[in-house]
Amino acid sequence: MEILLQKGKLYTIQNKVVHQNETGREMARKYLNQTSKVEDIDGQLYLTLTFTGTNLMNNHKFYVNGSLVSHQVTASSSTSKKLQIQNKLIKRRYKK
After folding, report:
1. Residues near 9 by Cβ (< 8 Å), separated by ≥ 6?
2. Is the pTM of this model over 0.70?
3. Are 50 and 61 in contact (CB under 8 A)?
4. Three-state secondary structure call for residue 76
5. Tens digits of residue pLDDT in 29-57
């Protein structure tokens, strides 16, 4: 079996929860880890969000710079779910 490794840069960021109402924002904050990972692989950015209490969270929608973006579940268990967003709309706001 051959294992392929992708070289890139990994960053940990503090995320911000935005919701139409306070209850929704509090629920999302409760189940979304406060830190997320951003990977830069060959100039493409990948954002990974981790949720706990996934039996209470569904119908995730993610917006990047005001545009709805797709996501994929990269890992899932009965207590947590990792979602990854890959989109060219994610802007770099960090210094190299």
Report:
1. 39, 40
2. no
3. no
4. strand
5. 888 889 988 888 877 888 888 878 766 66
